[in-house]
Write the structure tokens for this entry.
Amino acid sequence: MHDRDAALPALPAPMLAYGNGRSYGDVCQVEGGSLLRARGLDRFIAFDRATGVLRCEAGVLLDELLRLAVPAGWFLPVTPGTRYATVGGALANDVHGKNHPRAGTLGRHVRAFGLRRSDGGHLTCTPQQHAELFAATIGGLGLTGLVTWVELQLGAVASPWLAVETLRFGELAEFFALADASLASHEHAVAWIDCLAPRGRRGRGVFSRANAACGLADGPAPPRPGLSVPFTPPFPLLGGPGLRSFNRLYWHLPRRRHRIVHYQPFFYPLDGIGQWNRLYGPRGFLQHQCVLPPSVAPAAIAALLDAIADSGTGSFLAVLKTFGALASPGLLSFPRPGTTLALDFPFRGEATFALLARLDDLVAEAGGAVYPAKDARMRGDHFRRFFPAWETFSRHIDPAFSSSFWRRVMADLAD
């Protein structure tokens, strides 16, 4: 797709928009159907440098947006962990960042978007105009039609640098104390945890919190293009038998407590390693990200870590963040008040599926939810429990659109 005014093709099978392929699971796939490659919709339409209101086509990468906006003193109000997602993809998954307690999801900052429907309609959706489609499309996994352009309210920034404080903590309780204390003092917060530490120390980790660095005439330059994994090794380099030792070493690694850093390594650490997914070997990996309600989060996360340890596997990438109370505008938006835990697991066939199903059960018992953008195997009954507005949402799906994810989580209803 290169023309945002063009009609959708008439196809005999379902279609689905595809941006830059940064969703981990099957929400951006449609087996037996056709992908509308939307990356070609890559033009900026308008940018008011005085107010920070930017309108661009849906295929623009977040990285391209930042290269335009940051020198003008503006930044994404909310950003996911990669700057190589498209604006349309970020809207379709209603992405969140390390500042959720203060900013909520990206959808809260969307002023309007264009939506092409298969009946020929090309609608402008805002919170007031076609409001039901606005709510269904934000976080709607690309199922309501093709988003052609998006208008965002960006956030003002004093510089491209951040003042970052890094603290080591010895157990989960310390994480929650640090997270609570940081809500008032810091805009961004995130933690890595050692999910393979010995029982009693399980959940120890490294907490990072940051604010914009103000009053600096100069700061660190953006990092140069980093290393790239040149080939896929025959076995996983992350998650092998040495992972416990690697985690222990990473936790003990000496760190400066206070640093000034460029926004790129803080917000997008994995983007610094090209083709990093190859580190998981030829069978790849699965990610599991969930959110647990505040009242049960400490016990529920401890139960998840126990289940992972009991399975004999582990995850190097284990990230904890706090979600605040700002409501997401989308019917299927994942963020809600609580604590979110994201984990990567090298794929080992049925053993991995069994572990993730056990984690889903624990999340369901705790009243939490699993993130569709990171999922490739969640059961339909779990999905409908996690997202009770699914039935209302389904009334707004464009009849010509579908995805492998949606057909999977709805398949048992067709039996």
